[in-house]
Design a protein that fits this description.
The chain is α/β, with parallel strands linked by helices. The protein folds into 2 domains: about 90 residues, Translation factors (Elongation Factor Tu (Ef-tu), domain 3); about 160 residues, 3-Layer(aba) Sandwich (Rossmann fold), CATH 3.40.50. The chain contains 10 helices and 16 strands. The longest helix has 13 residues. The chain starts with a strand and ends in a 9-residue tail after the last helix.
């Protein structure tokens, strides 16, 4: 049992939790993740680490409310306990002195990007960060990214800030302007990461992406999280979660992510009638909660 010591609704549909898990906090490294089970009858699902405190024995996670399991997790409040947290899992980010780094993040990818940037800065890298959000109401942790990055840019999909609506446009212009970039890291939505790779490929800049396929056991046994990278089958839980984005078969990854949409919707619809009221009460911001 892992106790929630802090809960915050960052923006609609995005929840931040700080959880007691001392053993994991002592071993965690940038790029790794954990697998949670909210209760005894809950499914296992992965979440990236947004931070950890070895001295206090706490983990930080943030997530989007996407379906039944994340909705159940969002219904917990400070003082409640998560049934199981297993980790840290996955290969840590390869942190080296690359030179000039462009980090790109959106939604839930903002969380793992923060500790990764800190680690890259400790190696002497210059880090420029571009964060993407749908609109100003969906923007969060801009201050955290600014505090760890050398430069920070924000791209809003509604066009209300600057001339770019997608981060791909920003990357293309940034590189065409002659800015030197030695490596790109992209975490967040699949389509955003795919766009980043399409923007960087003509410039032959290695682009590392953090993949989030469907996952069950997190140890390479079930094979559910398999992806195709450079024509080879890889298991995200043990070979990743980070891969060279130029080698990822994005079309196959998207198809696999959509494999159980009908079943996920059915599970959510069966669970939600008796629980949405509690979630709204816990949030204290019912007008800002969007379930899908």
């Amino acid at each position: 049992m892992c106790k929630i010591v802090k809960k915050e609704i960052l923006v609609p549909n995005t929840i931040y939790l700080k959880v007691e898990a001392a053993e994991i906090a002592r071993k965690a490294k940038p790029g790794q993740f954990v697998i949670l089970r909210v209760d005894e009858v809950g499914e296992r699902f992965p979440l990236s680490l947004a931070g950890w405190d070895e001295d206090r024995g706490t983990l930080e996670i943030l997530f989007l409310i996407m379906g039944k399991s994340t909705m159940k997790l969002s219904a917990l409040d400070e003082g409640d306990c998560i049934r199981d947290i297993v980790g840290p899992l996955g290969r840590p980010t390869e942190i080296e002195s690359y030179g000039n780094i462009l980090s790109v993040c959106s939604t839930f990818g903002i969380g793992p990007m923060v500790p990764m940037i800190k680690a890259l800065k400790e190696k002497g890298n210059k880090v420029v960060t571009a964060m993407e959000a749908r609109d100003k109401a969906s923007l969060f942790w801009e201050d955290r990214l600014k505090s760890v990055s050398d430069e920070t840019y924000v791209v809003l999909g509604d066009g209300s800030l600057g001339k770019h609506r997608r981060v791909r446009e920003f990357i293309t212009e940034y590189l065409e302007s002659g800015n030197k970039v030695d490596r790109v890291f992209a975490f967040g939505r699949i389509f955003m990461m795919m766009d980043c790779c399409r923007a960087t490929k003509p410039f032959d800049i290695k682009t590392i992406v953090g993949l989030t396929p469907i996952m069950v056991d997190g140890t390479g046994m079930c094979g559910c999280c398999r992806v195709s990278v450079g024509g080879e089958t890889k298991f995200t839980c043990v070979d990743g979660p980070e891969f060279d984005g130029h080698l990822v078969d994005w079309e196959l990854l998207i198809k696999r992510k959509r494999a159980y949409l009908r079943e996920e919707a059915q599970a959510f619809n069966l669970w939600q009638p008796d629980n949405l009221r509690r979630i709204a009460e816990l949030s204290e911001l019912p007008e800002r909660i969007s379930v899908m």
